[in-house]
Every structure is written in structure tokens, then in C-alpha cells.
Amino acid sequence: MSTPAALQDAPSARSGTRTVLVTGGSRGIGAGVTKELVARGRNVAVGYRSGREEAERLRARTPEQVMPVQYDLGDERTAASAVATVLERWGRLDALILNAGQWRGGRLSEMDAQEWWRIIELNLGGVASLTRTALPALLRSDDPSIVVVSSVVGVIGHAGDTAYASAKAAMIGFARSLAKETGRDGVRVNVLAPGFVDTDMTAQVPASARAGIARSTLLRRLGAVEEIARAAAFLSEDATYCTGTVLSADGGWSI
Ligand SMILES: NC(=O)c1ccc[n+]([C@@H]2O[C@H](COP(=O)([O-])OP(=O)(O)OC[C@H]3O[C@@H](n4cnc5c(N)ncnc54)[C@H](OP(=O)(O)O)[C@@H]3O)[C@@H](O)[C@H]2O)c1
Fold first, then answer.
1. C-alpha 15 to ligand 1 mean position (Å)
2. CB within 6 Å of ligand 1 — which residues?
3. Helix, strand or coil for residue 152?
4. Domains, the chain
5. Which of 69, 98, 111, 187 fits a disulfide with 82 by CB distance 3.0 to 4.6 angstroms?
């Protein structure tokens, strides 16, 4: 199939290896994204907060393509050092996959105000501050892209998740606004909203609740890390005419 004329005229990824920073890239969905991008031949900076060993295990498989970087959503200094480390090693940053997130359940009536704001600040504030720090480097890429990992609960809400779901919903507003701010510079900003995926984050959810979620999902099953990872890679680098979109990867749970 020939390339559409509009795409031929569009700036193509410059020569060299596309370089991506995946936050929370050491475990769960982020580790899946790391593996998917490595398989696609990318350089991947794997953000970890405290689990360096997991990140090192990913590096051991393909040391020339993977570099662990310490990054904590709640510590703006680590955003600056993570971006600086990537630029030092590879001299470029083409994409962010803002996957790191922290879940803390609780109904509004059960959560004190301090904890409630902490979850919002950590999840939403972390995404905003790393993006702000990385933007100058991204703007030097020929195909800069940001994928914000939200959640199905940010789209449809979920009882017992008011703080987390608020943060995930706000990320959608953040991404769409940023898409409007940076579209003219060629930056694509998209949101991925996964459904229930089996990871450490969801390990405490009882079997009966999992079964209930599977039953209310059109595909009648939970998601696999690899499926979410492919959707993230699609938004990051295949979806070249998509910006400001929210891609639900939830087996039809949200409709
Ligand atoms: N699993 C699901 O069903 C589901 C559904 C919808 C959306 N999501 C979203 O998908 C993303 C990944 O979830 P997951 O299930 O893969 O989580 P996970 O298995 O708990 O893995 C979390 C990853 O994020 C890192 N991380 C945790 N807290 C961090 C912090 N404060 N700062 C920086 N990094 C931090 C962890 O690094 P360390 O090992 O160093 O702590 C780890 O690499 C999250 O944003 C989550 O909200 C998940």
C-alpha cells in the first residue's frame, strides 16, 4: 500500500532510534510496554520508583536498548534527573508513556481530605510535572508523542474509587488540553484507558469481584498486560493522525 500524500509531506521520524521514557516501566503494564517497544527496536528508559531489580532484569535482556531510570511521581527532582539521564545516554527523547500510577481505594466518606488530595496530587501532578520537564526535549523530535495512562474508572467512575477515579478523569482533561496547546508543534497527546488487568495493583481484588467484572465486560474476560501494551505502542507510534483521543482498552466494560 502506498503512503498517503499527506503523510509523505508530514515530518517522518528522523533517522536513528526512537527513544521512549516509560514511567512505571519496571512492572505490570509498564513492563509489558517496555517489552513491546524493545521488540519494535526502540530505546526504552524504564522508570522505576523503588524496584530497581525488576528494571535491571529488563535491561539484562537487551542492555543496548534498555536503561533503568529512577523516577517518583511525587518527587519533581526525579522528573528532571530522569529526562537528563535519557538525553545524556541517547541524546533524544521522542515519546513519553506516562504509565506510573498509584491506586488507593476508599469511598469519599472513608477517606480523609489529606489522603484524598495526596492521591490526586501524586497521579495527576506527577503526570503534569514530568510532561512539563520533558516537553523541550520532545519538541526536538520529528514525531513527539505522549500517552497518558488513565483508566476505565476515570471514564465511567467507580464506587470506592473517588480519589483515584478523579485523578484519572482529570488526566483526560489534561491530555486533551495539552493536545490543543501543542498540536501546532506536532505533538500528539493521547489517553489510554485500560479496563481490569491482572497486575500487582489489582492483586488484592477478590476472585468474586474479578468474576463480576469479567461478567460485566462485553468480551467476558479481564485484560492481559500484553494487550494493553500493544494499545499503548499503537497510540505512541502508529496512530500518527490521532491526538486528543481516549482509547478504551477494556474489553467493552465501559459501554
Ligand atoms: N491494573 C489495572 O487493572 C489497571 C487498570 C486501569 C489503569 N491502570 C493504570 O495502569 C498503570 C499501571 O498499572 P499497573 O497495574 O501495571 O501497576 P503496578 O503493577 O502496581 O506497577 C506499577 C508501576 O509503577 C511504578 N510506580 C508505582 N508508584 C509509583 C510512584 N509513586 N512513582 C513512580 N512510579 C511508581 C512501580 O515501580 P516500583 O516497582 O519501583 O514501585 C511499577 O513499575 C497505572 O497508572 C494504573 O493506574 C491499571
1. 32
2. 23-24, 26-30, 48-51, 54, 71-74, 99-103, 122, 149, 151, 194, 196-197, 199-202
3. helix
4. 5-249 (3.40.50.720)
5. 69
Cα(181) to ligand 1 centroid in Å equals 27
Question: What's the CA gap between 85 and 94, in Å, rounded?
Answer: 14
What would you report as the CA-atom Rg of the chain, rounded to the nearest whole angstrom? 18
For the chain, how many helices (H) and strands (E)? 10, 7
Per-residue pLDDT of the chain (255 residues; tens, 9 = 90+): 344 454 444 344 456 999 999 999 999 999 999 999 999 999 999 999 999 999 999 999 999 999 999 999 999 999 999 999 999 999 999 999 999 999 999 999 999 999 999 999 999 999 999 999 999 999 999 999 999 999 999 999 999 999 999 999 999 999 999 999 999 999 999 999 999 999 999 999 999 999 999 999 999 999 999 999 999 999 999 999 999 999 999 999 999
Check residue 13 and report its DSSP letter. Answer: P
